[in-house]
Amino acid sequence: MLSLIVLLLISTLVECQYNDICGLHHGKKFFLEHGESGSVVADFKDNVVETNASSTYSRCKVEFVTCSSCIIEIQFRYLNISRNCGRSPVIDTCGCDYVWIYEPHIDDTSGEQFCGRFMKSNTSELTYVSQTRNVAITFVYNNEYGHAFTLDYFTKRNRVAVTGYPTLSNMNNASQYIASAFFPQLYPIDLAVEYVITCVSVEPCRISLLFTDFLVDDSSIMEFFDWNGQRMYVMSGNTFRPPVIISNGPSMTIKFYANGGSDYGFKASYSFILGHMDDLAFKPNIGCGGYVNNLGGGITMMNMVEDGTKFYDCVWIIKPPEVYFHRKTHLYVKVATFLDFAGTTELTIRQGLTSNQPYVEVLKYPMAHYVSPRQKEHVVPITQGFYVRLRGVFTPQTRLAIVYAAFNYKDCFGGSDFLCENMRCIPILLNCDGFDHCGDNSDESNNCSQDPKDHREYSKIPNFLFPKIEPYSDLTTATFVFLTCSFGLIGVILAMALLLYRVNVRARHQRQIQDHIETIHAILEESVGDVEEEIIVPDDPPDYEPPPDYNELVKIKYYKNLAEVKLQEK
């Protein structure tokens, strides 16, 4: 019985420590599973936070991390924090004491302050819903409260559901968008999110999805599923802009996986197609645009249509590669021609790389006819770039020209740069190309017709497509040079190794021949030595029979003559 009471006391103490943000779990990080929940309070019963000597404010903090495909929802049950801290009777923002809830990797954008007096009821809620898996809660206070706040948290699936109720009289809204977490901030490398777009209508309904931004890392992927669960497309970051996607039913599911990569993210507008409306009205030609990453030139669109009209939706992102940042300091864009469109056409230029950046110019047709005296030049630091979008209807007479160039005001190199009369240094290739890149038209003088490098005819040729691979052109060239040099070095090493091998073989062969010659010479020397020894030291004379004496020779001679006489007588 005593052990049970002790266990209950310990569990109560642990629960109290876990729930109190200024208690023993202050500054800790807790990992939560899908569906897990809990609560956090600030009642100063077990306060272990010491006041910072350099500041009059104290801070209590706790952080929660859940699964990569989950988010955390926080609901205040009770809140009693002074909003004005006795300074002003009316104030819209929190004063000195507040609860700051944010997501650590993008705290400035995601952060939200909570203060004042609130008590949860059936008609009111005070809620914070994260867009990523990581949430931090910080309590900043100057005065101690008996009970500052109580909040509940629970994890759930990272699923964004949007529902539309279109009618034939009110079908679409221009602000219908889905986007990555805190776009255009960098999305976390472990982000996994699902979007479900649903259409509720008595008429047959379909969904059209058009991307305005797709700055996604190459390792990240996006999947598109039809209303029946069938996968329609799979896209990765190696695509500049996905095609227009139209479902076959009243819903569409989009799944995005960061897969260890991070970039600015994506943004897409969705529309509802009721009944048997023509898809062409919701499916413009997006086979234009791209990354414009050279040091200057012109975007031109003319002779795009032979007969009739064609609807275009083009996006260009103008920004030179970082390898040129040490050579050029500024980037400018100017619309030189904007004429003869059909229907409503709009051209927007934004300072930055996404559609969320501020406008610098908006041109509309037929409300404004663009003529030369109204041309505006927009200059930004080269690191910012421009986002240009054209959405309009083309005819055979339509003309569009957008001029851009990177320049600087010093270090103008004679061999690679052209010095304008306004003291700008632009790449020499932009001289006499039919466009005013200097801003004062000094690069298009009357002498261009006599210049052997005159290429003003390029300004009359459509140049509107900039493939995705172009941002890596310098990298590709460097890679090709590196591989060529590597293979050349490997070839030289192999040739030297082969040469050394052959020299070694030849030397070994020569040594073998020399060894054979020395062996033969030694054998010959041994043979000559044996002959000399035979001549110098003769053998003992052989044994001979002694010759007959004289009497015997006389007898032999006598018998021989006698035999010859008898032979003659016969």
From TrEMBL:
Residues of the signal peptide: 1-16
CDD domains linked to this entry: CUB, LDLa
Record has Membrane as a keyword: yes
Transmembrane segments: 480-501
Keywords recorded for this protein, A-Z: Disulfide bond, Membrane, Signal, Transmembrane, Transmembrane helix
InterPro entries in the record: CUB_dom (IPR000859), LDL_receptor-like_sf (IPR036055), LDLR_class-A_CS (IPR023415), LDrepeatLR_classA_rpt (IPR002172), LRAD2/Mig-13-like (IPR042333), Sperma_CUB_dom_sf (IPR035914)
Keyword Disulfide bond carried by entry: yes
Source taxon at top rank: Eukaryota
Disulfide cysteine pairs (residue numbers): C420-C438
Pfam families associated with the record: Ldl_recept_a
Cross-referenced PANTHER family: LOW-DENSITY LIPOPROTEIN RECEPTOR CLASS A DOMAIN-CONTAINING PROTEIN 2
Protein name in the entry: CUB domain-containing protein
